[in-house]
Amino acid sequence: MTAINTVVDLAKDGEIAVVTVNSPPVNALSADVRDGLAGAFAAIAADPAVKAAVLVCAGRTFIAGADISEFGKPPRGASLPAVQDAMESSPVPVIAAIHGTALGGGLEVALCAHYRVSDAKAKFGLPEVKLGLLPGAGGTQRLPRIVGANKATEMVTSGAQMGAKDALATGLVDEVVDGDLTAGAVAFARKVLAEKRPLKKVRDDNSKLGGSAADLAPFFADVRKANAKAFKGFDAPEANIKCIEAAVALPFEEGLKVERSEFMKLMTGLQSAAQRHVFFAERAAAKIDGLPADMQPLPMKKVGVIGAGTMGGGISMNFLSVGIPVTIVEMKQEALDRGVGVIRKNYENSAKKGRFSMEEVEARMGRLTPSLNMEDLADCDLIIEAVFENMAIKKDIFGRLDKIAKPGAILASNTSYLDVDEIASATSRPESVVGMHYFSPANVMRLLEVVRGAKTDPQVLATAMAMGKATGKIAVVAGVCHG
Question: Which of 13, 42, 116, 482 is least enclosed, having the fewest CB within 10 Å?
Fold first, then answer.
């Protein structure tokens, strides 16, 4: 094995070269990765003993995208187009072996290989629209040439990912490998050589686009009309559509020019700068001062919620939706029935919109246990109080919970502004008390304010944050202060 640099190695399995990217945590396309790939493919091109090449990644994923931290900084290292050209113009077949996720720039690199294989769990996507951008390395021009303009438009305007099964059906991958991915990719490379398969360049094949510009004009009009409300105010979705239209209407190189022009408009605009700021802010929020990065959360198999009103019902839905059973407690049967009815209605409305099946509605409702008895919370790992903003009521509830909840259970308050330390003082276990403040409607709003009390145990804090992430929230730690 030869180390091209600190993050890329080149090895040989007989006449097959194996290029391995190992740049934790997600093998992003940093300058070092690009330099390593450029060096590896230059070495492959110069070695007559190499008959085919496999590109694979170490760790938990294939190249998961661009290195966003480089955006807006002076360029350094090999350019991404240069790396892509080295792969696409390779004198020997290049096979990309994909596991984890091939997203954004990662998928754009894979599309420059002559063939692609993956494991059964791999995901593929171009999610740049979520950062106010579009794929800027040929993604809008190559993807429609392999999955069709219709599917490509859906993917670039939504950022949706495609699984391995669909990728195989569309031709995005040529084979799904069982067992060891690298060994499977090398075996596939040998098959390519044995069958004398051609060096297939995605850029050169227009047969899968789905029709001419005139044929597809009604489709693009329908996409704009159907998504007018969702796209309103955002520049990136329209720019992505324009680029797919260019892929259909123009030769590949001309389409690339349209893509580059639209990309630079977005990259230098305020919207993308703001969306990238949010991207990094959300990740910064997950890093908690004074908490070890390897802190393991407590196991959370069952949740209790006190209060079946707007907040309690919405909070319960977060857990029911991800498969966690919930016991919801109210004081009166009428209030309990009304709260459970609202939860069911919300789920049924989602089913009517096609988000999931009626069977899924019943599955989620089946995880809900309504009760008028607070003692039924005794087996819960996490209990969230969601009653009126009244300190006396909350302290009374926490005093009762202290006697009911099992040892080690987390006791959380949904209070929006009351003193969590004073609430915790009503218990003999203030280390188990934390604030978990949801925003209304709690089943929709993504922000979760996790309030760290003076005596909150670090593992309790880590668990509250982990539960936020598990239920699709952006959890942010706050201290105890009025309001």
Answer: 482
Burial zone of 80 (CB within 10 Å; 0-12 exposed, 13-18 middle, 19+ buried): buried
Query: What is the 3-state secondary structure of 230-279?
Result: HHCCCCHHHHHHHHHHHHHHCCHHHHHHHHHHHHHHHHCCHHHHHHHHHH
15, 70, 88, 128: the catalytic one is: 128
> Residues with Cβ < 8 Å from 173, sequence gap 6 or more?
98, 116, 117, 118, 122, 124, 164, 167
Alpha helices (H) along 60-159: 80-88, 105-110, 139-142, 144-147, 149-158
Is-contact 250 180, C-beta < 8 A? no
CATH of domain 2-267: 3.90.226.10
Q: Does domain 303-478 have CATH number 2.60.40.10?
A: no
C-alpha to C-alpha distance for 481 and 138, rounded to whole angstroms: 50
DSSP per residue, 116-128: EEE-TT-EEE--G
Q: Which long-range contacts (CB under 8 A, 24 or more apart) does 212-217 make?
A: 212/248, 212/249, 213/245, 213/248, 213/249, 216/149, 216/150, 216/245, 216/248
122-139, pLDDT tens digit by residue?
999 999 999 999 999 999
Rounded Cα gap, residues 438 and 414, in angstroms: 6
Indicate the domain borders of the chain.
2-267, 303-478
Number of continuous H segments (helices) and E segments (strands) in the chain: 19, 18
**Listed residue (338, 342, 316) closest to 327, CA to CA:** 316
State how far the Cα of 429 lies from the Cα of 143, in Å rounded to an integer. Answer: 56
The answer to whether the beta carbons of residues 126 and 156 sit under 8 Å apart is yes
Separation between Cα atoms, residue 455 and residue 420, nearest integer Å: 10
| pLDDT, tens digit (0-9, with 9 covering 90-100), for 154-209 | 999 999 999 999 999 999 999 999 999 999 999 999 999 999 999 999 999 999 99
CA-angle at 180, arms to 174 and 183, nearest 5°: 70
Q: What local confidence, expressed as pLDDT, does residue 483 receive?
A: 62
| Bridge partners, residue 125, by sequence | 103, 161
- Of 136, 159, 131, 156, whose CA–CA distance to 272 is shortest? 131
Q: What is the tens place of the pLDDT at every residue in 39-81?
A: 999 999 999 999 999 999 999 999 988 787 777 678 888 999 9
Q: Which of 88, 108, 245, 259 is catalytic?
A: 108
108 carries an active-site annotation: yes
Please give the single-letter amino acid code of residue 25.
P
For residue 110, is pLDDT > 90?
yes
